[in-house]
Amino acid sequence: MSALIALVPAVIFGAFELLGVSSFLTKMATSSCCKEKDLYLHTAQQTAWLQIEQTREEHLTADDLVVTEIRVGELHPDAGAGSDEVNSWERRPGGIWVLRSPYTGDRHQAVTAVDVLFGVDAVDPRPQWGLMGTPLQLGAHPEVPVARLTIRQGGVTPRPDVPQMPLRVKEDGKFKIVQIADTHMVTGVGVCKDAIDAHGNPLPERGADPLTVNFIGGILDVEKPDLVILTGDQLHHDILDSQSTLFKVVAPLIERSIPYAVVFGNHDDEGTYALSRMAQMSLYQDMPFSLCQSGPELVDGVGNYYLQIFAPGSSQLPLSTLYFLDSHGQIPSKIRDPDYDPIKQSQIDWFTFTSQALRQDRHEKDNHLSLAFIHIPIPEYADSDLIVRGGKRREPTEGPSFNSHFYDALTQEGIAVLGCGHDHVNDFCALRPPKDSQQDGDKLHGPWLCYGGGSGFGGYCSYGDKRYHRRTRVFELDTRTGGIKTWKRVEYAKERIDELDLVDSGKVVDHTPAYNLDGGTSAQVVL
């Protein structure tokens, strides 16, 4: 049975002292995260929480009162009903007004959960939840993101999507993926310090996250992808409320009913008040259209998993496999600053075992397309002899100094493309020169190494004194031909940028002539 907000006479809002500063205690049924949120976001000497008490429905009697409505405001709510209802509104600290009614046995008339989100740009994409427009009246500093109540009425209903249903290619055999890297969203609107106009002229500082949401939304509306992959640093470092920020990242996807998968970046859980990766993954997994998984417990990291893409209709034939791995974060090092954890051996073992088992199950289809996604680039991205086929290196690759040879495992298992983020102004795809042992036509070439490019206006998109436009990468799989094509979507550009065939007939395409890392293709119109 669901838990209802039961504010019986003995359970009411009250005041309490914390560290000598007057605050308020609110007893309601809500999610546990609410208990841990300082409504001042740790920015003031005073602190305040929304404390909760849950009462299960089967424990209620007809004599109990349950909350049927909550409002926030300085003035008494205009009930629009008789005087009895007006008199039933009870005022609480922070401008909260509560309407209590006798329990009738109908949970749909009751408030069953309360939460707190922060920021004038906060959103709540969860089904049945309603975010209040008026913030709590706390007297916080104007620069502190405002606290806003969000409530759920009625019992929990199943997710509007059907997560157990597999991903499927369209009838024409195609499947489109949009990779969104480094959104770097914050609690509140944030600030963008390096935006430029269509001609490359610097723009003044402005709110970051609304620009990111609009940019991503525009790309989704143009591309209409079958899947979105968020490749890390969805959240900026030192986030004050991870939940509010994470909701802003996935809301554009949920609004458009687009399935999505996630890997973590080095900044996502960085900071005193940031939620752990496991806690964030739990939030992702509970959201509509999420295909995110925490992965095996005995494998290092959070978010090592795979997804299969199946043939149309009810076919059980997998035509493509997507692998997702946690690339961890920054580590202390005497070798390099900054330095990062490598992909661990337990992850490589898991990937190799899983790939071989899946290949055995499908009896090795020649045109099966496999891609992998991480956040921090592996050391091979920094090779000086990479053969670039689109985009540019505009900053040095930042990755682990220790090479755990994940690239070799990818090559052995026939992965066609490895996608990453992290270095915001790098946006190339490149191949390593084949080794002598790979010259035999029967041997697989190593995977394409592709950067997504930075999409978020809250993260940097400049290097030195040069600013660049935000961008995302698109992959289109053609399972009929065994092909993979890629291009980029860039601010202000109406056309695809750097369109490139990566794979044909299930084999990596080795284009000629080559471009060096300082070059690009003629289609690169936005510098």
Automatic annotation (TrEMBL):
Organism: Oidiodendron maius (strain Zn)
Record-annotated Calcineurin-like phosphoesterase domain positions: 175-425
InterPro entries associated with the record: Calcineurin-like_PHP, Metallo-depent_PP-like
Top-level taxon of origin: Eukaryota
Family annotation (Gene3D superfamilies): 3.60.21.10
Gene Ontology annotations for the cellular component aspect, listed alphabetically: cytoplasm
An annotated Gene Ontology molecular function: phosphoprotein phosphatase activity
Name of a matching Pfam family: Metallophos
Annotated protein name in UniProt: Calcineurin-like phosphoesterase domain-containing protein
